[in-house]
TrEMBL record:
This is DNA-binding protein YbaB. It comes from Nonomuraea thailandensis. GO terms for molecular function: DNA binding. InterPro entries: YbaB-like_sf, YbaB/EbfC. Keywords: DNA-binding. Signal peptide: none annotated.
Length: 134
């Protein structure tokens, strides 16, 4: 193996290892992510995890005097939405550097994301007429 070839391989390996380390670091941050959202009146606080799963809801005792049950439910839903929205923004910030430039991030992680576009499409065999040689 020539010295130039060996050096090129070593450089590629070093670049790969740096990229893999950055990806592992981003994954670690993503897996530990929590976001807390608090209502403007500070009566409702919601904490969600990295996939938007609710990890905690805190209610100020005054909430029962100030909000009706339906208002309380709405306040909780709003804070869950705010927290999960922030999780999405932070996820994009962490993951986007690893997504190919020609692949829009929203296609992978956006609100309407679907992995369907990445699935293999069915193949239609040619009809007998197309395969006939007359």
């Amino acid at each position: 193996m020539s010295d130039e070839f060996r050096q090129a391989i070593e450089e590629m390996a070093a670049e790969y290892n740096q990229h893999a380390a950055r990806l592992r670091e981003a994954y670690g941050k993503l897996s530990e992510m929590t976001v807390t959202a608090e209502s403007d009146d500070r009566l409702v606080t919601v904490t969600v995890g990295p996939r938007g799963q609710v990890q905690g809801i805190e209610l100020d005792p005054r909430v029962y005097r100030k909000l009706s049950p339906s208002e309380l439910a709405q306040a909780i839903i709003e804070q869950i939405g705010a927290a999960t929205g922030e999780v999405g923004r932070r996820t994009k910030e962490l993951i986007e550097p690893f997504v190919p430039k020609d692949l829009p991030f929203e296609d992978l992680y956006g609100e309407g994301a679907s992995f369907e576009s990445f699935l293999p499409q069915p193949v239609q065999p040619p009809s007998r007429d197309q395969g006939a040689h007359g």
